[in-house]
């Protein structure tokens, strides 16, 4: 059956369910024999509903890395937590049971989402995608502006030329326009080279 589906040269989505690693490999090989490598594997816990503690969602990431496929989640847990976490682990496909009205009944009714719940899940998944971001230690424009509210070294008492810089007249306070606090030990016990008023931002030019 897998060979027949793969032979249509359409994208193939396979839910792993109770499959072992060997089973998954065999299914993929069946697709490859048909020349089809456009395959997605969905992590699935075959329990209805599935306990959240058995979701094992790190497998979403491992499926993609181990088998070089798109991965996702075939979800039977209650709520949106599992789909959101699966998204964080790189899941690109979320399969969730849907029902218009639970009063209709049926074996899946208890763990199926209604329209409102499904919409909330989609919103949460999209927000998770945005929140993931990328590895980048540079500050965003907003973060850079926020640096103005970080701490830096300021003169906090009026001081005279020749007076020593001490922890009494130099402090690390907001805003962040003065010297970096990492220089505190370097400037302590150095002499001021002029008179300075309280509130002056400190820099090495203030010291001998």
Automatic annotation (TrEMBL):
EC number(s) per entry: 2.5.1.97
Keyword annotations from UniProtKB, A to Z: Transferase
Gene assigned in the entry: pseI
Protein name in UniProt: Pseudaminic acid synthase
Principal EC category: transferase
SUPFAM superfamilies recorded: AFP III-like domain (SSF51269), Aldolase (SSF51569)
Domain AFP-like: 152-208
GO MF terms, alphabetically ordered: N-acylneuraminate-9-phosphate synthase activity
Entry's Gene Ontology BP terms: carbohydrate biosynthetic process
Pfam families listed in its UniProt record: NeuB
Organism: Aquirufa nivalisilvae
């Amino acid at each position: 059956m897998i060979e027949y589906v793969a032979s249509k040269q359409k994208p193939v989505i396979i839910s792993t369910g109770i499959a072992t690693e060997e089973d998954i490999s065999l299914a993929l090989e069946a697709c490859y024999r048909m020349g089809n490598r456009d395959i997605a594997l969905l992590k699935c816990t075959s329990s209805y509903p599935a306990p959240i503690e058995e979701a094992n969602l790190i497998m979403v990431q491992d499926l993609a890395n181990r088998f070089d496929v798109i991965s996702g989640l075939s979800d039977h847990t209650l709520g949106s937590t599992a789909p959101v976490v699966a998204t964080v682990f790189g899941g690109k496909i979320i399969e969730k049971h849907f029902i218009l009205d639970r009063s209709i009944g049926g074996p899946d009714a208890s763990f199926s989402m209604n329209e409102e719940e499904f919409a909330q899940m989609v919103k949460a998944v999209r927000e998770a995608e945005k929140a993931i971001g990328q590895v980048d230690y540079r500050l965003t424009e907003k973060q850079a502006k926020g640096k103005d509210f970080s701490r830096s070294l300021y003169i906090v008492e009026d001081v005279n030329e020749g007076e020593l810089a001490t922890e009494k007249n130099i402090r690390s306070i907001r805003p962040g326009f003065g010297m970096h606090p990492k220089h505190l030990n370097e400037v302590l016990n150095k002499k001021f080279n002029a008179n300075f008023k309280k509130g002056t931002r400190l820099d090495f030019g203030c010291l001998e």
